[in-house]
């Protein structure tokens, strides 16, 4: 029996970038709008937060913004105060300290930047991801996002965080990327792809993300196929991670899915 009681997708920001960042070698010159998402899972054993968005301090401060975002090929995301996780949680009557476990699908800046609000929580990430983020020339990481003495719980392989909440290895976009299967009390399970599939197009046409670990799409394509197979086997709905149309069709905040 699942321990999941409630599930919320949380919009933490919006950015605009060249579509080829999401669909490898496809869409160059087309600018798309993309949500930056976190997901809150309330279980009988505590509250789990999948991803924590960007570090809004790096966006608010013009000097820091130029330092961190100036070299990127797209502008910094829009992250208004009411989109930040403390505000999102506050709208639900919660505080960051009400989060027991933070699960990071990977350590890129738009997924791990908000860790500073969760210094009290256990932080789960794949061990290969921690190692790869420290490699010279690794792309997409702001290393000070995760350099503090957090309560790291390094993981390997698939594993259960709670009954009905399963972490799934999906490497390729990054070395230690992980997705998550969530069994709701009612209805079909949800399979959060994370950045293994930014867009519905990645899934439908089996297109790798634009950025792949060591510029090799082999693992990324294998992970997309594995997600599709897993969803088929258990009747889950696949949730792409940066698809604005999919998000708008499924956004229920502040209401929850159950």
UniProtKB/TrEMBL annotation:
The keyword Transmembrane does not apply. Residues 35-242 form the Metallo-beta-lactamase domain. The keyword Zinc applies. Gene3D superfamilies: Ribonuclease Z/Hydroxyacylglutathione hydrolase-like (3.60.15.10). It comes from the Bacteria. GO terms for molecular function: hydrolase activity; metal ion binding. Belongs to the metallo-beta-lactamase superfamily. PANTHER family: 102 KBASES UNSTABLE REGION: FROM 1 TO 119443, QUORUM-QUENCHING LACTONASE YTNP-RELATED-RELATED. This is N-acyl homoserine lactone hydrolase. It comes from Acidiphilium rubrum.
């Amino acid at each position: 029996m699942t321990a999941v009681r409630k599930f919320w997708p949380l919009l933490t920001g919006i950015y605009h970038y060249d579509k080829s960042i999401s669909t490898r070698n496809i869409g160059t010159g087309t600018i798309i709008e993309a949500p930056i998402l976190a997901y809150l899972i309330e279980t009988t054993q505590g509250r789990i937060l999948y991803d924590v968005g960007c570090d809004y301090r790096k966006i608010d401060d013009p000097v820091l913004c130029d330092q961190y975002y100036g070299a990127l090929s797209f502008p910094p995301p829009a992250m208004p105060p009411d989109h930040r996780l403390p505000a999102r949680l506050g709208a639900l009557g919660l505080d960051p300290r009400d989060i027991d476990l933070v699960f990071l699908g990977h350590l890129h800046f738009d997924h791990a930047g908000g860790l500073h609000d969760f210094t009290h929580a256990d932080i789960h990430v794949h061990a290969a991801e921690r190692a790869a983020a420290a490699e010279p020339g690794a792309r997409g990481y702001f290393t000070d996002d995760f350099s503090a003495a957090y309560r790291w719980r390094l993981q390997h392989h698939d594993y259960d965080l709670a009954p009905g909440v399963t972490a799934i290895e999906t490497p390729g976009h990054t070395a230690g990327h992980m997705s998550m299967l969530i069994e709701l009390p009612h209805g079909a399970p949800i399979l959060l792809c994370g950045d293994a599939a930014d867009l519905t197009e990645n899934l439908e046409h089996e297109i790798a993300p634009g950025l792949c670990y060591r510029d090799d799409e082999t693992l990324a394509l294998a992970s997309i196929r594995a997600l599709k197979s897993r969803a088929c086997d258990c009747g889950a709905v696949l949730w792409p991670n940066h698809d604005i149309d999919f998000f708008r069709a499924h956004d229920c905040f502040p209401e929850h899915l159950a």
